[in-house]
Amino acid sequence: MRRNEKTLTRLEFEVMSILWNLGRPACAWDVLGEWPEPKPAYTTVLTVMQVLTRKGIVSPERRGKAHVFRPLLSREE
User: Fold this and answer.
1) Which helix or strand (DSSP H or E) is residue 58 part of?
2) Which of 3, 28, 69, 74 could be joined to 46 by an S-S link, Cβ 3.0–4.6 Å?
3) Distance CA 42, CA 20 (A)
4) 50 Cα distance to chain centroid
5) 27 and 40 in contact (C-beta within 8 Å)?
């Protein structure tokens, strides 16, 4: 894997920080609910979570109609 695939953009780091702080798998709505104002669009958060999935940083799991994402890396990693 290339080095930059595990490098987080500012927006990706914001999403990961919220996931780490929640301490549980979360859907895009959960992340958006914890986001300080001004909040990004729901679709922006979902797109970032999909990018994080492709990078191997989060793992999606289907729960009903929603996807929840759990971090595969700790904050320290």
Assistant:
1) strand 58-63
2) 28
3) 19
4) 8
5) no
In sequence order, the 6+-apart residues with CB closer than 8 A to the CB of 43 are: none
pLDDT of residue 75: 85
Return the residue matching tokens 């999909």.
Answer: 50
Copy the structure tokens of residue 23: 């301490």
4-37 in b/e form (b: 16+ CB < 10 A) is: eeeebeeebebbbebbeeeeebbbbebbbeeeee
pLDDT tens, residue by residue, 31-72:
999 999 999 999 999 999 999 999 999 999 998 888 999 999
